[in-house]
Specification:
With 317 residues, this protein is mostly helical. It is built from 13 helices and 4 strands.
Length: 317
C-alpha cells in the first residue's frame, strides 16, 4: 500500500494537487475558468513561457541559467531604445543578436572552459544588471509614437481571437519540441544530461552541446524581450527582475529534472501554465501579490522533492 501511494505521488502528485487547486478556486471565483480569463493567463505566461523553452535545453544537460531575468531586462531596454533610433525591424534583429551573444558567452564559459554553471550565470546576472544601467543611464525608456508602430502586434495583437503572444509561445514550443525529439542535437542534449561521461565515449562533444543550449536560451530570451517590449511599449531597469526564478520554477514544475536527461518541452509548457494559473487564482481569491513568491518557493521545493523521489524510487526517505 505504501509503495502504491509513493508511486502515485511520484508520478502524478503535482498534477493532482493542481487539479484540487483549480477546483477550489473555480468554486470560490466563478470567473477563474472563463475563456476570457484563461486567455489572459496564457497571455501573461507567454513571456516566461518562451524563456522557459530555452532554459529547458540548458537544464536537460544538467546545467542552470540564472541570468535570463537580467538578460530579459537588458534586451527589452535595447529593443525599445533601438526601436526609437533605428526602427522596429533593426531593433528586433539587434535584440536577437544580443541575446545570442550573451548565450554564447555563457556557453563558452560553462561548456568549453568548464566553469560551474551556477557561478557563471549568477556572475552574468550581476554583469547584465550593471550593463543595463550603463546602457540606459538609469532612465526608463518608452516607445515613441506608440500608436503608430506595427511593433505593438507582438505583445498586444490578436489573431482570430487568440492573443499573438500566445501564438508565438505555442509556435516556439512546437519548434523547440521538434528539435528536441527529432534532431541529432536533441538526442545529444538528452545524452549529455543523462550520462555525460558515456555520451563523450559515444562520440558526442559535450562542450559544443552545452554551448549551443546556452545560445538557444539567449535566443528565446531575446524573443521574450520583443514580446515584453511590445506589450509594455517601454522598459524599466528592473523589468525582468525575478523572472529567472519564475522560469526555473515552471521548468521544474513541468517535470524536467535538475539532474539532467529527463524532461520535455511540453512538460515545460504545462509547468509554466500551471504556475500562471496558480498565481492568477491566488489574485482572484484576494491574496496579496507577494503571496505569489511564497507559493513559487513552495512549488520549487515540492517539485525538486518529487524529482529526487523519482530518482531514488520513493518520495519519503
Amino acid at each position: 500500500m505504501g509503495q502504491t501511494i509513493n508511486g502515485v505521488l511520484r508520478r502524478h502528485g503535482l498534477i493532482l494537487a493542481f487539479l484540487v487547486f483549480l477546483g477550489g478556486v473555480a468554486f470560490n471565483a466563478p470567473s477563474f475558468l472563463t475563456p476570457g480569463n484563461i486567455l489572459d493567463v496564457l497571455r501573461q505566461v507567454s513571456i516566461t513561457g518562451v524563456m522557459a523553452l530555452g532554459v529547458t535545453f540548458v537544464v536537460l544537460t544538467g546545467r542552470l541559467d540564472l541570468s535570463v531575468g537580467s538578460l530579459l531586462t537588458l534586451l527589452t531596454v535595447i529593443v525599445v531604445d533601438q526601436h526609437n533610433f533605428a526602427g522596429p525591424f533593426p531593433a528586433i534583429v539587434m535584440t536577437l543578436l544580443a541575446g545570442l551573444a550573451v548565450g554564447a558567452v555563457n556557453g563558452l564559459l560553462v561548456g568549453f572552459i568548464g566553469l560551474n554553471a551556477l557561478i557563471v550565470t549568477l556572475a552574468m546576472l550581476s554583469f547584465l544588471q550593471g550593463l543595463v544601467l550603463f546602457y540606459s543611464g538609469g532612465a526608463n525608456v518608452n516607445v515613441a509614437n506608440a500608436q503608430e508602430t506595427w511593433f505593438a502586434v507582438f505583445g498586444r495583437g490578436d489573431f482570430l481571437g487568440i492573443p499573438v503572444p500566445v501564438i508565438l509561445f505555442l509556435v516556439a514550443a512546437i519548434i523547440a519540441g521538434l528539435v528536441l525529439q527529432f534532431t541529432s542535437f536533441g538526442r545529444r542534449v538528452y545524452g549529455v544530461g543523462g550520462n555525460e561521461t558515456a555520451s563523450i565515449f559515444s562520440g558526442i562533444d559535450a562542450r559544443w552541446t552545452v554551448f549551443w543550449t546556452y545560445v538557444v536560451s539567449g535566443f528565446t530570451t531575446g524573443l521574450a524581450a520583443i514580446i515584453m517590449g511590445s506589450r509594455v511599449m517601454g522598459a524599466q531597469n528592473t523589468i525582468g527582475q525575478g523572472y529567472e526564478l519564475t522560469v526555473l520554477a515552471g521548468v521544474i514544475l513541468g517535470g524536467t529534472s535538475l539532474l539532467g536527461g529527463s524532461g520535455s518541452i511540453w512538460r515545460t509548457v504545462i509547468g509554466i501554465s500551471m504556475l500562471g494559473f496558480i498565481q492568477n487564482g491566488l489574485l482572484l481569491l484576494g491574496f496579496p501579490y507577494y503571496v505569489q513568491w511564497l507559493v513559487t518557493w513552495a512549488v520549487i521545493i515540492i517539485a525538486v522533492w518529487i524529482d529526487l523521489g523519482a530518482k531514488r524510487g520513493r518520495i519519503f526517505a
